[in-house]
User: Fold these one by one.
Assistant:
Number 1:
Amino acid sequence: MKVRAIAANTFNSLLRNKIIIVFSAGMVCVMLLALTPLMLARNNRAIGADQMQAMVLQIIGGIMSMVSGFGSLLAAWAAADAVSGEMRTGTILAVMARPVRRWEYLLGKYLGVQLLMVAFVFGMLALNYAMAAIGGVHIQISPWLLIVYPLVRYAVFSAIALMLVTVMHPMIACGIVLVMSIAAQIVAPSAAPPQFMAPWVRKTLFDILPSTSALSEIRFLTVTRATLRVAPWTDHVITLAYGLDYALVCFLVGAWLFRNRTLSRD
């Protein structure tokens, strides 16, 4: 009950967070501008139906990749600010004065962030189908892939940010998450090997950093239903279990670091 109340309060406060509102409004404006090439591709009569569908899906994939990347930063910032904000204002002292364990407090904050990301993911899902309708194409993949994969990935990034913010400033924590996200894409097996990085460094980073390429739902937008049938359900289970395990480890480390953290104002 205590964890549920903290999660609900966290979710409500994040919905009123001015920084999140401003960035979300800016992202909506960028997405509206990005719809222009989608309309142009649909009205292009010089290409065949198959080519048009491939072009529209590529445009949708690009737009959703940008939106999904914004979601990763949103998850990290929401998790970091949910804890540091109350420490900065001193509200955490009133919360912890009740019979609430520190790990319960962190768990409530973490679950509140996940509620925010659930709302974000369903909004992103609606945007996917809206853009497909505008482009005149049909998304072949199952909706659950566009829901579960980003939720697991956001759970990883928010857990990392929550772990980091227990020992550092939230802006620094979000900056580290951003660097980790970029580095994970650079060292991904599907990416071109960077010339400035030794192979052993790339392999080490790939083993340590979260595999955002495997947890990306955007890759499913570029394949057909027949291609999806080739992948067994065990692949999805292993990939999603990896993401959840990564998030769990980061949360547990964060809870361990937070147990002796001074709760006075920064």
Number 2:
Amino acid sequence: MTKLFVGGLPYSVDNNKLQEMFAAFGQVVSAAVIFDKFTNQSKGFGFVEMADDGAAQQAIKALDGTDCDGRKLGVSVAKPREDKPRDSGFDRKRY
């Protein structure tokens, strides 16, 4: 299974549309557009998990750099997520 990062998505693209874009290349396990939790607006990127590595590579070759509703898509293998410490915004040194 391969997880892909998809950047440059038009804000009108939802999870279903993202899945449709990649289904032409093989089985899509999951497709998720990332939304801002406060405004509920798309952040313009998402992730797609594909069952077959070969299909994922075909999707990258076919879609990376293409135009989608006036925006240039960037498609690549997703990097592993880094666990970042959560910052509470409270500066303990000051108090």
